[in-house]
Amino acid sequence: MGNQLAGIAPSQILSVESYFSDIHDFEYDKSLGSTRFFKVARAKHREGLVVVKVFAIQDPTLPLTSYKQELEELKIRLHSAQNCLPFQKAVEKASEKAAMLFRQYVRDNLYDRISTRPFLNNIEKRWIAFQILTAVEQAHKSGVRHGDIKTENVMVTSWNWVLLTDFASFKPTYLPEDNPADFNYFFDTSRRRTCYIAPERFVDGGLFATELEYMRDPSTPLVDLNSNQRTRGELKRAMDIFSAGCVIAELFTEGVPLFDLSQLLAYRNGQFFPEQVLNKIEDRSIRELVTQMIHREPDKRLEAEDYLKQQRGNAFPEIFYTFLQPYMAQFAKETFLSADERVLVIRKDLGNIIHNLCGHDLPEKAEGEPKESGLVILVSVITSCLQTLKYCDSKLAALELILHLAPKLSVEILLDRITPYLLHFSNDSVPRVRAEALRTLTKVLALVKEVPRNDVNIYPEYILPGIAHLAQDDATIVRLAYAENIALLAETALRFLELVQLKNLNMENDPNSEEIDEVTHPNGNYDTELQALHEMVQQKVVTLLSDPENIVKQTLMENGITRLCVFFGRQKANDVLLSHMITFLNDKNDWHLRGAFFDSIVGVAAYVGWQSSSILKPLLQQGLSDAEEFVIVKALNALTCMCQLALLQKPHVYEFASDIAPFLCHPNLWIRYGAVGFITVVAHQISIADVYCKLMPYLDPYITQPIIQIERKLVLLSVLKEPVSRSIFDYALRSKDITSLFRHLHMRQKKRSGSLPDCPPPEDPAIAQLLKKLLSQGMTEEEEDKLLALKDFMMKSHKAKANIVDQSHLHDSSQKGVIDLAALGITGRQVDLVKTRQEPDDKRARKHVKQDSNVNEEWKSMFGSLEPPNIPQGLPKGSDQEAIQAGKPPRSESSAGICAPLSTSPQVSEVTNVQNRKPTIQVLSSTILPSTYQIRITTCKTELQQLLQQKREQCNAERIAKQMMENAEWESKPPPPGWRPKGLLVAHLHEHKSAVNRIQVSDEHSLFATCSNDGTVKIWNSQKMEGKTTTTRSILTYSRIGGRVKTLTFCQGSHYLAIASDNGAVQLLGIEASKLPKSPKIHPLQSRFWDLAYPERSYVVAGSTSSPSVSYYRKIIEGTEVVQEIQNKQKAGPSDDAPRRGPESLPVGHHDIITDVATFQTTQGFIVTASRDGIVKVWK
Q1: 1107: which strand partners?
Q2: Sheet holding 1056-1061, edge to edge
Q3: Under a CB-based contact definition with an 8 Å cutoff, are residues 278 and 287 in contact?
Q4: Cis ω on the peptide bond leading into residue 118 (within 30° of 0)?
Q5: What does pTM read for this prediction?
Q6: Is Cell wall biogenesis/degradation among the key words of this record (predicted)?
Q7: Which of 474, 567, 677, 1158 is deepest in the core (most CB within 10 A)?
Q8: How far is CA 922 from CA 76, 80, 919, in A?
Q9: 466 touches 510 (CB < 8 A)
Q10: 1118 and 1138, same domain (yes or no)
C-alpha cells in the first residue's frame, strides 16, 4: 500500500505560493508547512490574515463538488457555535488541479500555548478544558462531528478563548490497524506520532470491502487504495469525546501526550493503559474526567453536555457557567471590533465583574488556587488588548483597570503578566500614558510581598533599565511622575533584594534543599548587588535633582525624600541628597521650591543626625529672612521640629531664639504662631534657669506682662503685644532707602529714651516724606519700637526682594501672567458656533475629512481621526482577535478612526449595516446587542462634541435674546396728520455719563425714559421740551439696579417702567406723577434676579428698598422664593444723583454713533435721539 501511495505522487510539484497567482482577494504571506495531504500557507486579506490549505488533485474523478457542498453546510450549521471556527470558503481551481480551503488565521494552537510563557496556571487550564467541552457540545448540537480533534486543531487566542477548527468530515472515519500509511497521510501532520483517534476507528484491514460491495450495501465501510478513495462511514460523537479527552489530558500534563499510534493500538487490544501519564494530573476531578472520556468502550463515554453538567462545581467552578462563559462570549462576537472598545466595556462593568469573580468562593477542590484566581481570565482579556490600543483614553482606562485588579492578583500574575505591559506603556507616544504607566507600575510592584525564584533579579536587570529613560523624558509630566515614585521604587527594590537574601539564608540552613547552587547567590554578593542597586538609583535621583524644571525637584522632595535617605544610608544621604537640596535655596524666583526644602529638611536631618546642625544653621537663618512669608513659616516649622528631635546644638538654639523673638510682633498671623511654637518647644527642652536667664530676655519687649508657663502656647499668645500694622510694615519694607529710615527711627528711639537730647529732622526730603506718610498711617512710638525690633529681618528681606526683582528683569521677557500660545507651539482649533445649512451632497463634510492629515498627532491620539466609519461586509467571525494575535490591527482599525457622529441617523444606518451581514449576524442575541453595541467614538471626542453643543446652545440663546430685544416693537401714538419734522434742536441733554442704550415714551406721551451704560435710568418730562421752562433736566434718576442698563419699556396703559441690566436683574419701577411744586417719586416695586446658568438660583424681591423702615418675610410662591418687604410709608428723599447743568448754547447734531430714536406727542410732535457718548437731543 505504501508503494501504491508513492506511485500516485504528482509528476510536477508546485510551491504553495504558485497557487495564489489568479486569486486577487488574497495575497500570499508565508508558508506554514506542508504535508503530503495539504500544503498550508498564510495569506493577507482586507479583513485580516487567513489560513489557506491547498489540496493537489491527483485524480480528476474525485467528487470535490460534494465535499464543497458538505463544507458549506457545515459552515452554516456551526454559525451559532462561538467556540467553533469552520472553513469559511472552498475554491476549486481547475487550471492548477487544486482545491483550496480558507479560514481565519489564529496565531497559537493549544500545543504551542502549553509551552509558551507565561505558562498557563491551573484556573486557566480548567477554563480551556471547559471551552473544549463547550465547543464539542456546540458542534454536536449542530449535528456536526469533528473527526480530528487534537492540540494542533484547538486554537487559543491571546485572551484564552478557544476555537475548535479544521473540521475533518472529508477525512476517513475508519483506518486499517495493520497499515500506518493512512494515519500518517491524513492525521499525523505534526509528525510527532501522537494519536488522538478513538480506538474503535481502527479496524482490521481484511474487513474492508470493495466499491462494488459498497454499492450493494451502503452501510459497509469502503476503501479502495487504487482509486485513492478513502474509507466512508459515519463519525460518532463518542469518537470526538475520546479525542477531546486526550487533548485535555495533554493540557494538564504540560504537553505529555496520552498515546502514540502503537500505544493506542495496544490500548485498543487491552494491552496498554496510560496510567503513568494520568497520574501526572494532580487534580482528581480532572483525572476522573479524562479517564471517563478515554474509556475504551464507546458506549461508556458520555455526551459533552453530560460531562459539563457532571463536573459543574467540581472540575469546573460554578462561575464558569454563571458569569464567565456568557460574559466572555460577547467579546467573540462581531459587535466588539476594537481593543479600545473592549477595555472601555470592561471598565464600565468592573464593579459587576469583581462582585461575580471575587464575591463567591471557588470550590474547595480547586486545590490551592486562590479565591481571586478567576480574575486571571479577565486579566488575559485586558492584556491582550494593551498593545493594540489606539486612543489615550483607552490606554488610561486599561491602566486604571490594572490598578483596580492588582491587589486581587497573585505575585506570579503581577510579575509575569502585568509588569511587561506596564513597561511597554512606559514607551508610549503619549506623555500622559507614560506617566500613568510609571505610577501604576510602582503601585503594582509595591504589592509584591514575596519574590519567585525566577524573578530574583527583576529590578536591576529588567525594571530599572526599562524605565531609566523616563528620568530624562522630554515631557515634564513624565519626569514629574518619575520623581513622585522613585522613592517607592527604590524601597521596593531594596525589599526584593532583602527577600531574596532571606530566602537564600533559609535555603542554606535547610538540609533538605537541593537547589541552593541553582537559585541562590553567595552571601558576599548581597553587598555587591546592593551597591549596584544604589548606583542605579543614585544616577536617576541626581538627574532628577538637577532637572531644569523646579516642579520636578519639588516633587522629589515632597514624595519620599526620607525614604531615599533610608535607602541610601547616612553617608550617601549626606553626600547625594543633602548636597543637592542645599542648592535649591539659590533659586530666588521660586518660593515653592524653597518652601519644599524646609518641608523636607527635617526628615533628612533626622536621618543624617545632629552632625548636620552646623551645615543647616546658615540655611535655616536664610529661610527666616526669606522674601516670601510662606517660606518663613515653613522655616519656623522646620526649626520647631528639629528642636523637638534634639537636632540643634544648644548655642544654635539660643541664637535662633534671638532671631525668632521679633517675629512675635510680625503682622503675619502664621509667622507669629510659628514663632510661638518654636519658643514653647525651646522652653520644654531647656532648664528653668535657662528659660529665665537666657530665653526670657528675648521675650520681654514683646509681652505685656511676665509669665511663668512659657512652654504653653495659649499662655504665651495671650500676653503678646499687638503686632505691627500691616500697612506700616509693608510701606516701610517697600521704601527704597530703608537703611536711612531705620537710622532716623533709631535716633528717635534714643531721644525717647534720653540717650540723645534732640533728634533733628531728616535731611533727605525723601526720608522726611516717608516718615510723614508712616505717621499719617498711624505709626506710634510703640510701632516704631516694633519696626526697630524687626530691623534685621526687614533689611535682609528688603535685600532679598531687590535681588528677586533684578533677576526677574533679567530672565522674564514676557509679561507676568500672560501665556503666549504661539511661542508654545499649541495648535489652535476653531469651530463655528453658528451652524450653517449643510449642502445636500455633504461636500463640506468630505472636505473636512480630507484635512485630517494636517491634524496634530497628539490630537489624533486623544480625539481620533476625522474619517467616517468603514465597516466591511461579509466579515469572518472573530477576525479581530486573530488579527491581534498576528500582531496586526483588527479590521476596525483599518481606517484612521471609527468616529461616528452623535446624531441618530448614522447610528441607525450602521446598525442596519450590521444586521445585513449574512449569515453570521442572525445568531446575535437580542438581549446582548442593544446593551453592548456602542458608537465607536473616543471619550475625548464625545466630551469635545458635548462642549461644542453646549456652547452652540449658549450662543443661540444669546442671539435669540439679542434679536428679541432689538426687534421688539412697542405701541405708540402716531404723529398728527401732516406733521413733518423741521430739524430744529430744542434740547441738548447730557446728564448720562456713558452710552444711552434705549429711549421709551409712555403711552400718554407725558413722560419718556432713557437708560445708559452708566447704570442709571432717567425720566424726562415731555412738557418741558416745549420751551415753557428755563432749564431742561430729568425729573427722576434711578441707579439702584446695578450694572449696565441695557433696555427698558413702559407697561401698557400705566406709569410702570420695566428695566433690565446686564447683571441679570429685571426691575419694575412705579412712577408717581404729581403737580408742582411737589416732585414725582420712584418706587422700585419688584426686582427679579435671574441666573441663566442656574435657574434654580433665581429669586424675586418684592417691595421698595428706599424706605428706612423695612422688614422681610420669605415664602415660596409657585416654586420661586419670594422676599416680601413690609415697610412704614415715608416721604421719599431727594434724588441722590443730582443732574448736571446743560451748556448755555446748544450744539446741533450728534458727535457719536446714534444708539436709539423715539417720538412723542404733546401739543406738537417731537423726536428724541440718543448717542453713544451719553447725549440726548430733542427735536421738533
Answers
A1: none
A2: 1045-1050, 1056-1061, 1065-1072, 1081-1089, 1099-1102, 1120-1127, 1110-1117
A3: yes
A4: yes
A5: 0.68
A6: no
A7: 567
A8: 11, 8, 6
A9: no
A10: yes
Pairing of strands 175-176, 202-203: parallel
Asked if pLDDT for residue 845 goes beyond 60, the answer is no
Contacts with 848 (C-beta within 8 Å, 6 or more apart), sequence order: 866
Instruction: Give CA–CA dist 968/960, Å, rounded.
Output: 12
One-character DSSP codes across 50-86: EEEEEEE-S-TTS-HHHHHHHHHHHHHHGGG-TTEE-
Question: Which candidate, 110, 82, 131, 112, places its Cα nearest to that of 377?
Answer: 131
Cell of 795: 533689611
Asked whether 238 and 301 are in contact (CB, 8 A), the reply is: yes
Q: Give me the count of residues in the chain.
A: 1180
The helix (H) or strand (E) run that includes residue 267 is: helix 261-268
Per the listing, cell 522630554 goes with 474
Q: Region 317-329: what's the mean pLDDT?
A: 92
3-state helix, strand, coil in the chain (%, to 5): 50, 15, 35
- Say how far residue 534 (Cα) sits from the centre of its chain: 33
Active-site pick, 22, 112, 148, 1062: 148
CATH code at position 74: 3.30.200.20
Burial label, 963 (beta-carbon count in 10 A; 0-12, 13-18, 19+): exposed
Nearest to 997 by CA among 983, 981, 1015: 1015
CA dihedral (1170, 1175, 1176, 1180) in degrees, to 10, reads: -90
CA angle 193, 199, 201 (to 5 degrees): 95
Residues with Cβ within 8 Å of residue 952, at least 6 apart in sequence = 833, 834, 835
pLDDT classification of 743: cutoffs 50, 70, 90: confident
Residue of 923, 885, 922, 870 lying closest to 51 (CA atoms) = 885
Domain enclosing residue 183, as ranges: 114-316
Q: Tell me if residue 148 is catalytic.
A: yes
The verdict on 642 and 680 lying in the same domain is: yes
Q: What is the pLDDT of residue 976?
A: 66
Residue where one domain finishes, among candidates 105, 139, 158:
105
Identify the CA nearest to 1158 among candidates 1049, 1017, 1069.
Answer: 1049
Q: Which residues contact 393 (CB under 8 A, 6 or more apart)?
A: 344, 862, 938, 939, 940
* Relative orientation angle of helices 431-446 and 476-509, to the nearest 10 degrees: 20
Please identify, among 675, 690, 723, the residue that sits at the C-terminal boundary of a domain: 723
For 941-965, the pLDDT digits (tens) are: 788 888 888 888 888 888 887 776 6
